[in-house]
Amino acid sequence: MYRLGLILGLSLLFARCKDDDIPPKTTDTQSGFYTVNEGNFQQGNSSFGFFNTQSNEYSKDVFFEKNEIPIGDVFQSVAIINGDYWLVVNNSGKIWIVDTSSLKIKNSIEGFVSPRYAISSGNKVFVSDLYADKIYVVDINKMSISATISIDGWTDDMLVSNEVLWVANREKPYLYLIDIEKLSITDSIKIGNNTNSICKFKNDDLGVLCEGKLGSSEKAAFYVIKNGTKTAVLVHEFANAEKPIRLQQSAVDNRIYMAFKGIYSFSSADYSFIKKELDLPESNIYGFDIHPKTGDFILSDAKDFVNRSEVSIYTSTFDFKRHFDAGVLCNKFIFK
Fold first, then answer.
1. Distance CA 176, CA 167 (A)
2. What is the mean pLDDT of residues 16-45?
3. Total-model pTM
4. pLDDT at 125 exceeding the cut of 80
């Protein structure tokens, strides 16, 4: 036993000395984009990856690499606020504030139940939540929760337009309008059930994408709220099995896009459906974004929702460029 213990002890000492001699890895994050990898619930496998488009190399977790601590459980989203990244970690109930250049932690905020998304207006940051039945208000100067706004249900995607905070609710067929100064609900707009994304278009109209009531066969639908109005107009209803996500507008061709087993496009002039531009019938698309400069389409296939997601990049004309394996449940891409 003594001999075995001595051998193990020397082995550990040797390994430690070797590790100390190895300089820390420094990932080049100048050219490319980050991947937000949720990870599985309570599995501790969330990560913030980076794909270098010059070298085609993928770094699995630049957050851990720079800070030597894990992000936490279920890395939900990233917001860019006051020149920093706000990393929202859902099941851990916290937000990390990190420097966009060094990726070093600058601060953290706790006290949330199950935060989803963050968005700013002035010195306030609004945070939606899965279970809290409220919107949290964070004071940027104090880096702490300063107020809450009661909303019954699962609050999710948000945007700010005309000094109003627009809030989607996954459990209610309404968009809620919140006065940013008074921190109170001023109105609600009837839409479809289970809103997964809202988007402000270049003409200041708002688009709303609804999946249909959770656990039902209700059809997904795309709505538009014309600028200056408070009425949602149904512009397209999808087939029974189609549940598109990630509504957005391309900065390159101005078309409107969303994804489900491929990519759909709509006209930005009259919102009419154009066609399914890319058909990927075997995919489970979980993340979808459009590069703001090149117009490239980036998609993540969650596969079996347990193993690493496969990310594919297509040109603005839907020609395949490359793919790589990101982290588990890659849901979004943050461009440099």
1. 5
2. 71
3. 0.90
4. yes
